[in-house]
């Protein structure tokens, strides 16, 4: 890296010492043996076997953007992807998009870098790139269309808005500092004008999943711990089974990658807040305080779906959220969840426009997400308090080797 | 004035002026007249004759040596016409306007560099004109240092701005006359047309901070006590909303007085290359904030006329700077050409007769496409100032 960085990069040891917990795997990268750091100063490796931002311990902040191609010119797209990759690698390391890009150039020209992250540390920024079916179609690469990008079926109760659904490609920016994530997306979007246009974007302010055993389980806006039994970075073979696309699953360019399913889930939190504690706990299937499955003592106790109460009723109701979504109920299906809470202001009717921006990484959306969401949409009492307003599926290629650019395996493989 | 936009032509009979920078995409609608067969042209000597009819534009030579080139343009048609020599990117090397039927006028133009140019007649003074290739051979002796090129750029832009104001005055007078005659429909038709010339040179007009609020202010702009809402938008509101008022004529007279004041001041204006480049960018900013939003022409909804005029103005400034741009960054000019063309092509899809769809007829999808096209153009436009001064 040359030129000014926003801030010099901290050494691993120094950074790690300052941080709570977090000894997890850095995620998939070639440097995975290094400790994963989640603090402000830490830098998540950009290149590696898998893309960062998937099993990387979930950062607290999200800016997710879906873009459409405004050209079908392959060379133009490659040029942008190369430019994006170079800028992304710099920003992830805490640097400006170009050396000296924020202030050090021609005063008559607009700065290359927009500058709002100047002086901020890397903040564990990860930038995760995915392609949608639209990109593959527009560039005439349909012989490389991975099966997982086939459209999702309609689910009961879907209220999908086309304006917040789909997209030809996506960039997921996660960081411990929201300004660092926004800066990254803003600068990448700017580079794309003329080649890409933003279709929709979503800010998230609190992670709703843990992707490492070193992380505490956070709470969603219903006030419940969420993602206790998530697939985690330490799960080894489980990751290969549930998260990473394996050779033979589809076109080779996606081997080692993962599918990203995004769902914008609006929560009617005002209605939920008028629901009794016992009803809330029955709907979720966990106690609210500790997060333990009903009938158990602590969060990580395994749920006993066969237990019955004095009257013979199941302790965990048959339509409780955790039961419907459990691997037990779905023939062993698991997913890696990496969602975020959001509040997009208010809705004009005195209610918060709030919810959960669900992100899941999985090996096969149709074998994993579809049965899970189908079960939830048809039976889950939670559906009375939520509606899915946005949906998208992207294929995130494997990590980049030295010199490679985002999407190269698809475009040149 | 940070918000400025204006309506454009309704009947695009831009009498008075050149219709400006045609742009790419024009070729499809421009019948190509062959430029005569007098190869070798008027090399050493007399003017190159141009027979400018209503449907043909016969240029008696298709090439000439670099240096001073003189065209003698005879209008053999029935419409008022004009004649242009264009460089790469539709840079106007020179033009002669308002040639009435039966008249012959000369265009004397300095073309120091050899290369591919185009001639164009514009019968009726609208559209992209009847084009033909014109080759300039060799290179005239001159010092082509940076300062010279930049000076040529600012001088060329100044000529263009001057030509716009020359057209702006009579067309605005027509508009004001219609207002004063109580001809509401006539005035409505002329409103976006006269504004077209204003919108093309908006950054220049805005540089006179006292004139712009008087001529182009909005009703809800903050004003000092006692200062009235005047100018184009006051008349727009009269015509479309309130009906003509007792003082509408006086407002019109004031608009004309201000327009003449503008002309006087522009004559003395010295522009820098950076001002040109920033002006090109500001015109697109105007489009993004005032036209695509429907803010400016909130009563008439003729925002797309203004949109087109702003883009033409931006292209005019870029065209003037083009030789410098090409020298400093050979990739930028073609990219700008491509993006300008995309905007033009998109706007053409909203054309209705000589004008455009009203803003109120546009869907969210329409404005989204416009926004994407303007964003795509705005980024490279924003690089021009830096490239020019690099």
TrEMBL record, chain A:
Gene transcribed to yield this protein: efeB
Keywords: Heme, Iron, Lyase, Metal-binding, Oxidoreductase, Peroxidase, Signal
Primary localization class, coarse: other
Annotated protein name in UniProt: Deferrochelatase
Reactions that this protein is recorded to catalyse: heme b + 2 H(+) = protoporphyrin IX + Fe(2+)
One annotated GO molecular function: lyase activity
Compartment(s): Cell envelope
UniProt-listed NCBIfam families: Dyp_perox_fam, tat_substr_1
Organism: Pseudonocardia humida
Signal sequence extent: none
Cofactor: heme b
UniProtKB/TrEMBL annotation, chain B:
Gene3D superfamilies: M75 peptidase, HXXE motif
The EfeO-type cupredoxin-like domain, residue ranges: 20-125
The Imelysin-like domain, residue ranges: 153-384
Highest taxon, organism lineage: Bacteria
Locations listed in the record: Periplasm
Signal as UniProt keyword: yes
InterPro entries: EfeM/EfeO_iron_uptake (IPR050894), EfeO_Cupredoxin (IPR028096), Imelysin-like (IPR018976), Imelysin-like_EfeO/Algp7 (IPR034981), Imelysin_sf (IPR038352), Iron_uptake_EfeM/EfeO (IPR053377)
Keywords assigned: Signal
Signal peptide boundaries: 1-24
Protein name: Peptidase M75 family protein
């Amino acid at each position: 890296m040359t030129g000014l960085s926003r801030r010099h990069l901290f050494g691993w040891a120094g950074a790690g010492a300052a941080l709570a917990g977090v000894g997890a795997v850095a995620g998939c990268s070639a440097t995975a043996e290094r400790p994963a750091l989640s603090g402000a100063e830490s830098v998540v490796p950009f290149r590696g076997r898998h893309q960062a931002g998937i099993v990387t311990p979930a950062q607290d902040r999200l800016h997710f953007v879906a873009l459409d191609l405004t050209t079908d010119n392959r060379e133009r797209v490659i040029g942008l992807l190369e430019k994006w990759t170079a800028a992304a690698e710099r920003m992830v390391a805490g640097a400006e998009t170009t050396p000296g890009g924020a202030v050090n150039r021609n005063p008559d020209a607009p700065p290359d870098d927009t500058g709002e992250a100047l002086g901020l540390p890397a903040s564990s920024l990860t930038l995760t790139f995915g392609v949608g079916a639209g990109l593959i179609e527009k560039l005439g690469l349909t012989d490389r269309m991975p099966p997982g990008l086939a459209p999702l079926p309609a689910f009961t109760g879907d209220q999908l808005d086309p304006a917040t659904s789909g997209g030809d490609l996506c960039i997921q920016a996660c960081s411990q500092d929201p300004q660092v994530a926004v800066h990254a997306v803003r600068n990448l979007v700017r580079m794309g004008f003329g080649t890409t246009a933003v279709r929709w974007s979503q800010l998230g302010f609190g992670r709703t999943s843990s992707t490492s055993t070193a992380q505490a389980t956070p709470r969603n806006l219903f006030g419940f711990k969420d993602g206790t039994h998530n697939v985690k970075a330490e799960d080894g073979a489980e990751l290969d089974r549930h998260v990473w696309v394996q050779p033979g699953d589809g076109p080779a360019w996606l081997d080692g990658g993962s599918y990203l399913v995004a769902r914008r889930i609006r929560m009617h939190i005002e209605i939920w807040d008028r629901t009794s504690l016992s009803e809330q706990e029955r709907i979720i299937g966990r106690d609210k305080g500790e997060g333990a499955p009903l009938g158990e003592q602590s969060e990580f106790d395994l749920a006993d779906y066969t237990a019955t109460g004095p009257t013979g009723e199941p302790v965990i109701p048959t339509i409780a959220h955790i039961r419907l979504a459990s691997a037990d109920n779905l023939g062993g299906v698991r997913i890696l969840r990496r969602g975020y809470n959001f509040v997009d202001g208010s809705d004009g009717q005195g209610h918060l426009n709030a919810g959960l921006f669900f992100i899941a990484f999985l090996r096969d959306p149709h074998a994993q997400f579809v049965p899970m969401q189908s079960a939830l949409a048809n039976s889950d009492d939670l559906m009375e308090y939520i509606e899915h307003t946005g949906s998208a599926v992207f294929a995130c290629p494997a990590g980049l080797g030295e010199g490679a650019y985002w999407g190269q395996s698809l475009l040149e493989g | 004035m940070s918000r400025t936009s204006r309506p454009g032509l309704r009947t695009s009979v831009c009498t008075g002026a050149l219709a400006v920078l045609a742009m790419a995409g024009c070729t499809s609608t421009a019948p190509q007249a062959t430029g005569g067969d007098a190869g070798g042209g008027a090399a050493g000597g007399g003017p190159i004759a141009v027979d400018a009819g209503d449907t043909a534009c016969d240029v008696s030579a298709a090439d000439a040596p670099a240096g001073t080139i003189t065209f003698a343009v005879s209008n053999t048609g029935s419409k008022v016409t004009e004649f242009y020599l264009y460089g790469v990117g539709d840079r106007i090397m020179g033009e002669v306007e308002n040639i009435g039927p039966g008249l012959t006028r000369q265009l004397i133009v300095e073309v120091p560099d050899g290369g591919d140019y185009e001639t164009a007649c514009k019968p009726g003074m609208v559209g992209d004109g009847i084009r033909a290739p014109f080759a300039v051979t060799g290179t005239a002796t001159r010092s082509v240092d940076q300062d010279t090129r930049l000076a040529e750029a600012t001088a060329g832009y100044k000529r263009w701005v001057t030509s716009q104001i020359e057209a702006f005055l009579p067309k605005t007078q027509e508009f004001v006359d219609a207002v004063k005659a109580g001809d509401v429909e006539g005035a409505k038709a002329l409103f976006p047309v006269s504004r077209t010339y204003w919108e093309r040179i908006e950054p220049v007009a805005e540089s006179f901070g006292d004139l712009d609020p008087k001529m182009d202010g909005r009703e809800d702009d903050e004003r000092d006590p006692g200062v009235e809402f005047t100018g184009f938008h006051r008349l727009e509101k009269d015509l479309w909303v309130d009906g003509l008022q007792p003082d509408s004529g006086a407002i019109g007279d004031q608009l004309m007085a201000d327009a003449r004041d503008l002309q006087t001041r522009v004559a003395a204006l010295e522009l820098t290359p950076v001002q040109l480049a920033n002006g090109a960018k500001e015109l697109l900013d105007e489009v993004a904030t005032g036209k695509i939003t429907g803010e400016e022409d909130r009563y008439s909804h003729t925002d797309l006329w203004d949109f087109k005029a702003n883009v033409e103005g931006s292209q005019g400034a870029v065209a003037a700077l083009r030789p410098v741009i090409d020298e400093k960054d050979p990739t930028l000019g073609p990219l700008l050409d491509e993006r300008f063309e995309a905007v033009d092509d998109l706007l053409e899809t909203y054309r209705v007769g000589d004008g455009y769809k009203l803003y109120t007829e546009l869907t969210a999808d329409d404005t989204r496409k416009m926004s994407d096209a303007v964003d795509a153009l705005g980024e490279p436009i924003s690089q021009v100032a830096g490239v020019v001064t690099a």
